[in-house]
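Look at a sample.

——
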Amino acid sequence: MVRAGLTPDRLVRAGAELADEVGFDQVTVSALARRFDVKVASLYSHLRNSRDLKTRIALLALEELADRAADALAGRAGKDALTAFANVYRDYAREHPGRYTAARHPLDPEAAAASAGGRHAQMTRAILRGYDLSEPDETHAVRLLGSVFHGYVSLESAGGFRHSAPDSQESWDRVLDALDALLRAWPRP
């Protein structure tokens, strides 16, 4: 019997909230069942297993991030677009640490193809068009931006910048200035 009020969407959203509270690695169907005060078996009519739950949370996080990024990029170009895009990732990681981790969860090829991951890549490439990069340099730059954004955010969220001056925000601003300068002067082969 399906418990009234439990739907896959409600469970995934509750799983995403749980991820933000306790960490994405701690999210399981059992933990979610405890949250709803139901038996684990009652969730299996909505979710296959913990892997399915984590995949769905990852897809939700990618969609939320893509929607935020699209809103932030509207009407922007160049450094303004680069900064807005980078800040979306940083702000999302601060607001939703578990979901941010989920957005980097490995997906199988089918789930990845159906995810908002492609939108992220398209938006990154749209930003880079303002820097007049052609292939394969554009792909190199996409990878560079992803590495810098995710690396900085991961180090910052782990407390890596708390114990020294200057302030992390000042460093973030300088990193974005440096990325803009690098992209404008991208080395040509």
The chain has one domain: 8-184. The chain is about 70% helix and 0% strand. The chain has a mean pLDDT of 92. Residues 50-73 form the longest helix (24 residues).
